[in-house]
Amino acid sequence: MEKFDKFAVLGGRILLALVFVAGGVSKMADGGATTIPYMEAMGLPGFLFWPTAIFELVAGLAIMIGYRAKFAAMLLAGFCLVTAVMAHMDFADKMQMILFMKNLSMAGGFLVLMRFGAGEFSLDNKVEGDV
């Protein structure tokens, strides 16, 4: 199985990052029309929309291509945990409970990535030996 490690790490990075890249792009495409009201309903200020959308896209791309992946993974793990607590704590709503658990799971994946790095197929490995 070890011969597949480098492909597993690449695939894992892409799958973890995909939700943030797609989320950032879709948020930017609608200019916050759906996200800002949701954020404000959760008690978050709407002005955080653009920084959040940009962060999701940039951090997701960093994970996807493996650039400064350990740092990006640390930030995204924190983002997932904070988002879980701030936006998905209504456990009476089954969907919110699922989103809460998804965020915890993704944070776990990012913590593993933070610890072990982006792997062989990454810019980190090519530039600095998996920073």
Terminal CA distance reads 25 Å
Rg over C-alpha atoms, rounded to the nearest angstrom: 16 Å
Helix content: over 70%
Quaternary state of this entry equals single chain
How many domains? The number is 1
Structure annotation, total helices: 6
Query: Which overall shape is indicated by the principal axes computed on the Cα atoms?
Result: globular
- Please write the string of helix (H) and strand (E) elements: HHHHHH
What amount of the residues lies in strands? under 5%
Main pleated sheet: none
Uncertain stretches: none
Quick overview:
It is built from six helices and no strands. By secondary structure, the chain is an all-alpha fold.
Description:
By secondary structure, the chain is an all-alpha fold. The protein is built from 6 helices and no strands. It has helices at residues 5-30, 35-41, 49-65, 69-87, 94-116, 123-128. The longest helix has 26 residues, at 5-30. The mean pLDDT is 94.
Main features:
mainly alpha, globular, single chain, 131 residues
How do the helices and strands line up, and which of them pair or pack?
Elements: H1 5-30, H2 35-41, H3 49-65, H4 69-87, H5 94-116, H6 123-128
Helix pairs in contact: 1-3, 3-4, 4-5
